[in-house]
Amino acid sequence: MTKEVTIYKISDFGTSVTAKKDILAVEEPLEISVTAGGKTTPLSVTMRTPGNDGELAIGFLFTEGIISSANDLADPPYKNTGDNQTTVYLKPGLEHNLQKVKRNFYTTSSCGVCGKESIEAIMQVCRTPAQIDDGKLDIRHLFELNGKLRTAQETFNSTGGIHASALFDFQGELITLREDVGRHNALDKLIGAELLKWNDKEFFLQQHILLLSGRASFELVQKAAMAGIQVICAIGAPSSLAVETAEKFGITLIGFLKNGNANIYCGSDRLTY
User: Fold this and answer.
1) Computed over its alpha carbons, how large is the radius of gyration of the chain?
2) pLDDT over 60 at 107, yes or no
3) N or C: which end of the chain has fewer CB within 10 A?
């Protein structure tokens, strides 16, 4: 979703001022609630770009360990219950899962969370076994991904101010793309969209490549690990904790993927040259 505004463009070191139209990515709050056992519980408020709100909510519940597959969802699985409000409906018997919800934000270096404890906490709730052998990936396919992402990224092309998460197969074909002002929201939307396709099957996105339009943070690697994604590529740099987490889960982590170049931080044995 975008919004048109009037701006004043300054050029030539302030000697020229021109009024013109500009396109902005919309940012609004979304309240995510869950109904289970006849009781509705508000879980989180996140700032996001409106659109695919149900996918965002479901992806959030999955990466928080509250649901494990679409089989945990009622019919219908979600409903937009008001302006900027989405409620996800769980099947009976899953009320206890809400007791373990404790949202931690790892977005600043001053949060006081130990990196080792963070990774161990993920492994306690992650249903994907570490060190999955899911085949080899021809590295030449990776250098096609960025161009395919930019071609498909409609909102970025019009605003220049939005993040994207894209899912590709091992042949480099684009499967799903989601955009949002929040990089973690874009990934939750993507995971939610894929989970809804899997019906009651176990949800693991093995032999898939996740491409991130920016940097690779710990939180994004954590979400990918929950979904069983084994190859993560980022246009930007990874953080140290992101690399540690990827190593722990046997994930191939690649950064600075652009202009025919890339840095492999871990998991190089999965790649062929």
Assistant:
1) 19
2) no
3) C
Alpha carbon of residue 129 to chain centroid: 20
Q: Taking the chain, what is the end-to-end CA distance rounded to the nearest angstrom?
A: 40
The torsion angle over the Cα atoms of residues 223, 226, 228 and 232, rounded to 10 degrees, is 20
pTM: 0.88
Tell me whether residue 60 is exposed, middle or buried, using C-beta atoms within 10 angstroms of its C-beta: 0 to 12, 13 to 18, 19 or more: buried
57's CB contacts (< 8 A; 6+ apart) are 30, 32, 78, 86, 87, 88, 192
pLDDT band at 130 (very low <50, low <70, confident <90, very high): low
Sign of CA dihedral 58, 179, 218, 252: positive
The residue among 90, 101, 93 whose CA lies nearest residue 125 is 101
- Helix, strand, or coil here: 99? helix
Name the nearest CA neighbour of 178 among 168, 169, 189.
Answer: 189
Tokens 């928080």 sit on residue: 64
* Residue position matching structure tokens 């080792």: 116
pLDDT in tens, 139-178: 999 999 999 998 988 766 666 778 999 999 999 999 999 9
Residues designated as active site: 111
Inter-helix orientation angle 240-248/218-226, to 10°: 20
**In whole angstroms, what is the distance from residue 240 CA to residue 137 CA?**
24
Dihedral in degrees, nearest 10, Cα atoms 104, 106, 108, 114: 100
